[in-house]
Amino acid sequence: MTRARVIRVLIALAAAIVLLFGAIWLFQRKLIYLPDTSPVPPAGEILPGATDIVLRTSDGLDLGAWLVPPSGPGSYAVVLVANGNAGNRASRAPLAAALSRAGLAVLLFDYRGYGGNSGSPSEDGLEQDARAAHRYLTEDLQVPASQLIYYGESLGSAVVTELAVEHPPAGMVLRSPFTDLATTGQEHYPFLPVRLMLRDTFPVAENITRVKAPITVVLGTADSIVPPGQSRDVAKAGSARLVEIPGADHNDRILLDGPQLIDAVTALLPS
């Protein structure tokens, strides 16, 4: 092969690499956020007694949400639920039902771009969405911080941890949290310079050190999405109570509404 041909081949390879990384940069959020964009049914059709509400974000978006009342007596508290990166609030109905049976009120909401909501998800956008949920509970419903519990599922753990830095709750439960998005991304895409390319970082382990509230971390020991070691590192960084569910994978039902999970939430109830 002549020198000129070698140079042409190298230029073509470099161009292909630039195009590949450019495409990943532009479309990476399609890999991070996996919303079910279809509208959800009315709250009362899924959870008896629940009501449909609308949350208004600081950048002008309306987000659909469900407010679920407690179905039995219990210590008055409200759980603000931040979902993971897939589905919509309807898929968290079993969690809300279980918490309601335990005597808790629950706010389920969908992020922008999920569940028929307008907008596109991003780290900054999800943080604005969580703030809108917090404003509704604390300003519209006048729920005091002493009666407010945050619950974050996977990606939602990053969302509520950021919220807790600004607005400390009575307690917080993180289910399958990662240390930061880049570390998890590197696990799944070891051939890419993930940390250099990510637009959204979600630094959970860093932020949790600034949270002034009791924290519980729940993990499944067979989690194939978020390595259990990362969840343990988050618990250590936040001096959190750790609850390990043997043999549970990331999307197993026991990590949605299983008894250990519900007990982890109710253990944080104000006395």
From TrEMBL:
Entry annotated with the keyword Transmembrane: yes
**Keywords noted in UniProt:** Hydrolase, Membrane, Transmembrane, Transmembrane helix
Show the GO MF annotations. hydrolase activity
Q: Membrane-spanning residues where?
A: 6-27
- All copies of the Serine aminopeptidase S33 domain together span 77-183
Among the Pfam families in the record, one is Hydrolase_4
* Protein name (record): Alpha-beta hydrolase superfamily lysophospholipase
